[in-house]
Amino acid sequence: MFYRSERLFLRPPFPEDARGLYEGICDAGVVAMLGSAPWPYRMEDAERSTSQPKPGLQRFLVTLPEKNGRVIGGIGFNRSKDDPEIGYWIARSHWGRGYATEAVRAVCEMARAFGHTRLTAGHYLDNPASGRVLRKVGFRETGEIRPTECRARGELVLARRYALDLDAAEDEVAAAQMRAA
Questions:
Q1: pLDDT for position 85
Q2: In the sheet that 140-150 helps form, which strands lie side by side, from edge to edge?
Q3: Helix (H/G/I), strand (E/B), else coil: 134
Q4: CB atoms < 10 A from the CB of 115, how many?
Q5: pLDDT of residue 99
Q6: In whole angstroms, what is the distance from residue 95 CA to residue 70 CA?
Q7: Continuous segment of H or E residues that includes residue 168
Q8: Distance from first CA to last CA of the chain, Å, rounded?
């Protein structure tokens, strides 16, 4: 599946994306906020990530169409016991421009199209910027803080948990549009 938002193009990774993925994610500050990425992150990790589809998981590269499809991040659905869980990252050189928020909104719209009614997400407590992104999109804190694996750090890290009811979120958007009309 491909998705074009206002400024971004989300698409599946292809083997030829390995270099762009590596250049974007190979930053200890980025990888330390992800659950499954190793550190140090090597070119071989990027090659493996772009060449091996992950069954049952939808993953997308976040790219900039006006920059010849330059990879600036990644986003997708992770396995979860119940509802799909969103995970994402944006390269440090692109922080503070609203790209994470735009990408999360896009993936929420895709999840709705896939027939999902609820999504979950989380962020490590030492990454409050990710929590701001989730709240802007409409995710609500569940009240749960739990130890979560961080492969790059080699330890469990406390993560705040969020959920988004996609049906309610859609109703809220429709109500806001009616008030504006």
A1: 95
A2: 3-4, 9-11, 59-64, 70-78, 85-90, 118-124, 155-165, 140-150
A3: helix
A4: 7
A5: 98
A6: 15
A7: helix 166-180
A8: 32
Angstrom CA distances, 160 to 59, 70, 109, 120, stand at: 22, 31, 23, 11
Please identify every stretch of the chain with a pLDDT value under 50, giving residue numbers as ranges: 175-177
Is the domain 3-180 a CATH 3.40.980.10 member? no
pLDDT digits (tens, 9 = 90+) for 166-177: 988 555 555 444
Find tokens 């569940």 and name the residue.
142
Which tokens belong to 44? Answer: 């071989």
Question: Are 11 and 60 contacting, i.e. CB atoms less than 8 angstroms apart?
Answer: yes
Cβ proximity of 131 and 65 under 8 Å: no
How is residue 173 written in tokens?
A: 């958007």
What is the token pair recorded at 28? 């200890």
Say if residues 63 and 79 touch (Cβ distance below 8 Å). no
